[in-house]
Hints:
alpha/beta; Rossmann fold; 4 helices; 27% strand; globular
Amino acid sequence: MYTCITKNVEETKELGKKLGKSAKSGMVFLLYGDLGSGKTCLTKGIGLGLNINATINSPTFNILKIYEGDLTLNHIDAYRLEGINQDLGFDEQIDGEGLTVIEWPQYIMDTIGDNYLKIEIIINEDDTRTFNFYPYGKEYEVLLKEIVC
Length: 149
């Protein structure tokens, strides 16, 4: 496990930017955290690292948003999918080209393979954020060694 602490939105975006710059096509990032913990903020930073010019916001109502940059960013919010037992076609994004970032992945874990980076975001009492990174796959170990917190 690797851990980083950010003190504000700017530091969270900067952490995301580092992740985006180091990401490779086919990678999957799973974001766990309470509402308001910084999942979308981190994703905005990832977009900056991928040189995405579009405004990145939560895909809660769309469920999936696709952004073009140095890599395609597939941004999935699975929050509203709890209890839905049907094939929604996410396999194409998760197993395809680009980087896939999934908020609330616990609701669609059966569609996610064994290689991914689990990112747990904890809101601390002083309103800082702790990011715990759990790499599942060699490529994620390499990525995390490039990111210095």
